[in-house]
Please model this.
Amino acid sequence: MAGHGAEEHPHGADRLCGVGDRVYSRAVRRGRVPRRDAEPVPCLLELALLHPDPDDMDWLVPTSPQEVMTRLLRGMYDEVSASQRRVGSAVAAVEWYAGLGRQVRPDTSVTEGPAIRVLDGLARIQAAMDEATQACTTEVLTVQPGGIRREAELSEGLHRALALRGRGVRMRDLYTHVARHGQGLLTYLELMRDAVEARTLDEVIDRLILFDRTVAFIPANTDRTMALELRHPALIEYLVTVFERLWRLAIPLTAPLPDTGIEGISHREQSIAALLAEGHQDAVIAERLGISVRTCRAHIARLSETLGAASRTQLGVRIAQAGLDGPPHSDASVTVPGRGSPTVR
Model:
């Protein structure tokens, strides 16, 4: 229809325009709508929320909300994965150029700059963190990878967290699902009360701490004896965007992990299956999920038993047949090979 091009509907299926929402809702309730009802909202056809009724082309039938949700979740998962890769590339580039700077000036251990500062040594890192904590007035965002948090790690930053709580600063923390099993984290959250909100994901990016959306700290080497202090507005905005997208995908620590909908397969095993399907080795999977290699292999063995696989090659085929080769879905109807009828969540 003239005058109603896609440029007038710059949105996705997760945020429909008002007219589109009403037409799609009517189609879901009634099972179909006349094609003329959708003429003012071509976005519904472009986003595949409506499609022609094969029995009568003058009518449009809706795509099921469950299918739409699955499509949205897969798209969000792909976006976050791409963001994680870009963060890794940015850190590697910064490390490389910081190394060049140290070669030019071998007598200095720290490269100073107004937007990016390389902190060499735990003492310098702690001092910079204490300075940022004292200046913080509103919000702290953190990503804490690595599974169960050790008591020593939690105690190390407790004085800063208590100081922030005393000034009314709000904190949001992201952990891996494995961290839910650590008593130290539960004790820490009880101590911080409503000053901290925590959520978990199967896997997160490397450690990140953001103060007031103005200064961020990330590791600069694998053993974390060096860190980058970032104050460049573009970098900070990018890191905040990554955090917020992960936060939307994460599950509150107070809420249980969703059931996979597949008998005998846990949420963690579903995540392991997806990473196996991507071709990752056991050690890589263990690191990304914050578990030991031994624990990872025990889960893989249970996956093989549940799916009736006699080898790793056959396990890959079974994973694909069971639909476990993608991100976990919120709604699933899956047949486990070698078993009876589908197990539906």
